[in-house]
Fold ZIP Zinc transporter.
Amino acid sequence: MGHVSLWPVLVLVLIHLLGSRLRFLHGFPRSVWLSGAGGVSVAYVFMHLFPELHEGQEHMEENVFWAEEFLKHHVYLVALIGLATFYGLERSVVSAKRELVKKDSRKVEAPKGVFWVHIGSFALYNAIIGYVLFQREETPSQSILLFTIAMALHFLVNDYALQEHHKETYRKYGQWVLVLALLLGWSVGYIQEVNKTTVFILTAFIGGGVILNVLKEELPEERESRYWAFLLGAGAYAILLLSL
């Protein structure tokens, strides 16, 4: 095996460990930095990840005999499944918190059972990202840099949302679970290489998850998100991607 770069996974680990402690991200209305980070993440998915999925769709139709007959656009369906999965999880957490507040208005954290389901799903998500991150070792350094930046900013958005839902429980347990999952996914990529079809499927799932996890934080009216910051982040990163 050739040279392996550790810096991408270490950057994402540091984001998990330090991101939720950045005070300038907290407060109301929503931080311009979070809205801008969300814009960058979404721009990356639409401008870079989805074009890769188009290539993946062609690869799967050529290499998986049932693909064209069973599901012509199954790679994009996986992206939709990723989006729907995280939408369902978010709704379950919000509903559980709402029911808890009805019983006791002092309760601000989601129930422990919901916490572990929520963190477990994001741990799987992180493991997939860690695996895909390692697979990009074979791509040009420019590609892995763009992916790392987009995922780092996306993790900032996710960490803030998870801490908002689960408070100190997230700091005590959740962030460590996500770090371990990220490292586990990266390590699996180092030890065992899977076929190209699987990588495309995992990448599609990430794409759907990124879109949902960003938009669910930006759209609620009560958050008073900064649309201009979201637009600036998305526009700037889109211009960068187009210029490369």
Remarks:
- The first helix runs from residue 7 to 18.
